[in-house]
Amino acid sequence: MLNSAQLHQRRKQRIRTKIKKIAVDLPRLCVHRTNMHTYAQIVDVKGQKSIVLVGTTGKSGTSLKNGSNIEAAKFVGKTVAELAKAKGIEKVVFDRSGYLYHGRIKALADAAREAGLKF
């Protein structure tokens, strides 16, 4: 029997495999969430380097009351989209990292789309 961490890891690998087959040259918008904070980064697939990294723990995230709610996720999504557009990135592939697409993950994705990022 597999525990929840192993199941999460399987979902994460399954999603990554599909993304690598579909979008070969597009950067990935990777999302990570914890009980305290929400993070998003855009990773260059070719160089395996982080282009943009935003989280609720940084200087800009200190204005938030709570780093683990939908309001914080919207803030992270909007900020990562603005920084990506400033670096010339218009289109990405959304990598939800094994998390279900609801709540904070969905709010982050919707905020990034509203700020002009396409995926």
Characterization of the model:
This protein is α+β, with helices and mostly antiparallel strands and 119 residues long. The protein has helices at residues 4-22, 70-86, 104-114; strands at residues 28-33, 38-44, 49-55, 93-95. It has one domain: Nucleotidyltransferase, domain 5, CATH 3.30.420.100. The protein is 39% helix and 19% strand. The protein is globular and about 40 Å long. 31% of the residues are buried. The model has no long low-confidence stretch (mean pLDDT 92).
Question: What is this entry, summarized?
Answer:
With 119 residues, this protein is an alpha+beta fold.
Order of helices and strands: HEEEHEH
Rg, rounded, reads 14 Å
Question: How many distinct helices?
Answer: 3
Task: List unreliable stretches of 5+ residues.
Answer: none
CATH architecture: 2-Layer Sandwich
Query: How many domains make up the 3D coordinates?
Result: 1
What portion of residues is helical?
A: 25-40%
> If you average the pLDDT, what whole number results?
92
Stated plainly, the CATH topology is called Nucleotidyltransferase, domain 5
Oligomeric status of the shown chains? single chain
Strands in their spatial order, largest beta sheet: 3-2-1-4
- Helix/strand/pairing category: alpha+beta
Overall morphology: globular
Name of the top-level CATH class? Alpha Beta
> How much strand content do the residues show?
15-25%
Sheet of most strands: 4 strands, mixed
Terminal CA distance: 36 Å
Task: Tell me the total number of β-strands.
Answer: 4
